[in-house]
Amino acid sequence: MIQHLFNKATNVLVITHVDPDGDAIGSLTAVGQLLKQDGKHVTLVCDDRVPERFAYLPMADQVRQTPDPKLYYDLLVVVDCGDEGRMGNAYANFSQPLPTVVNIDHHVTNTRFGDIQVIDDKATSTTEILYGLFTELGYEITEGVAMSLLTGLVTDTLGFRTVGVSANTMKVASALMDAGADLSFVTTNALIVKPITTLRLWQVGLNGLQLENKLAWVAIPLVDQLAIGFKGQSSMGLVNLLADVDEVAMGAVLMEIEGGRIRVGFRCRPPYNVAAVAEKLGGGGHFLAAGCTLEEPLADATARVVALCKEAIQQQGEPALVG
Ligand SMILES: [Mn+2]
Questions:
Q1: How do strand 261-268 and strand 250-257 relate by DSSP bridges?
Q2: What is the Å distance from ligand 1's center to 126 Cα?
Q3: Strand order in 215-220's β-sheet?
Q4: Separation of 92 CA from ligand 1 center, angstroms?
Q5: Residues 56-114 pLDDT 10s
Q6: DSSP 244
Q7: Is 322 part of a structural domain of the chain?
Q8: Which of 10, 58, 246, 295 could form a disulfide with 144 if both were Cys (CB 3.0 to 4.6 A apart)?
Q9: Which CATH number characterizes residue 100's domain?
């Protein structure tokens, strides 16, 4: 079915999520290269700019912020998006008749939008799914494709350290290295090296760190982000730092972003589940990593997030009743 869709398509639009991470850009550029290899005309779109740390990926310089209005698309491939809203304006402002939509994703909260779904919430990254899909379809994994796919694996697993990293994950990584991908290069550039503004953001955030009832949280007003020259919506890993603290069950970072909205990131360790919290707030994600966007003042959003997280920690942390 998918093979048939790819075969008959001429102009393919590929969209990934706003505020893209390594899996988003890795998936976007991998699909771009594979379909281009196959003779297709491909347009890669992300509502936000590609972060500089992923500039080494093939086709990263060809990612546009809007579809090409001069083209008529006959296939839309959506990668790493749990719902249509995650595509932002790239999809909300799409003015053509909607082509066939293929939804390729690994979020447990995926809404199963689109005409064809390739969803595996056991996969650690969307690129892990893409590797299986495209090798099954007989596509050649070139060195460039392998770099894109490995970037998604490395970033979504924080360097193969997260719950859910399976023997298959390691087999895929090994195959990608055989295909020419450089693991230490990817790990260094996509995961470890960061601009000084990231440390400044953590500094500002940690100054306001709060810890109550096993919940660690930080709220960063937009004005504080602008003061240090930070541009972005994610906490650049600060939320992971919070959830890695021994005394902490859940971590939350609230980032005030343009338009008076609040982007919230959640992290936890087993047996806790932040996807359930994010879903209650209109967002989604994975059990251990999730997020949502709220439309209310930072103080109100913080109060709501803190109350919901504390409640979830209490409920989820209770030992199962015996008998
Ligand atoms: Mn992902």
A1: antiparallel
A2: 5
A3: 210-212, 215-220, 250-257, 261-268, 289-294, 284-285
A4: 21
A5: 999 999 999 999 999 999 999 999 999 999 999 999 999 889 999 999 999 999 999 99
A6: T
A7: no
A8: 58
A9: 3.90.1640.10
Residue 271 preceded by cis peptide, ω within 30: yes
CB distance 175 to 131 below 8 Å:
yes
Indicate whether 145 and 176 sit together in one domain.
yes
Q: Give the up-direction half-sphere exposure of residue 204: CA atoms within 13 A in the CB hemisphere.
A: 22
Domain contains 323: no
Together in a domain, 161 and 284: no
* Region at 260 (left for phi over 0; alpha for psi -120 to 50; beta for the rest): left
User: How far away, in angstroms, is 271 Cα from ligand 1 center?
Assistant: 21
Greatest Cα pair distance in the chain: 66
Query: What's the structural domain count of the chain?
Result: 2
Residues 135 and 257 in one domain: no
Which domain, by its residues, includes 217? 198-317
Q: Which two tokens stand for residue 256?
A: 């005030």
Same domain (yes/no): 163, 285: no
Cα–ligand 1 centroid distance for 319 (angstroms): 31
Alpha carbon of 185 to ligand 1 centroid (Å)? 20
Q: Which two tokens stand for residue 184?
A: 């230490």
pTM (predicted TM-score) = 0.90
Of 158, 154, 229, residue with least CA distance to 198: 229
Chain-centre distance of CA 132, in angstroms? 19
CA of 148 to the centre of ligand 1 (A): 13
Q: Ligand 1: distance of its center to the CA of 54 in Å?
A: 15
Strands (E), 221-296: 250-257, 261-268, 284-285, 289-294
Chain segment 203-251, per-residue pLDDT in tens: 999 999 999 999 999 999 999 999 999 988 889 999 999 999 999 999 9
Best CA proximity match to 263, nearest among 308, 223, 224, 298 = 298
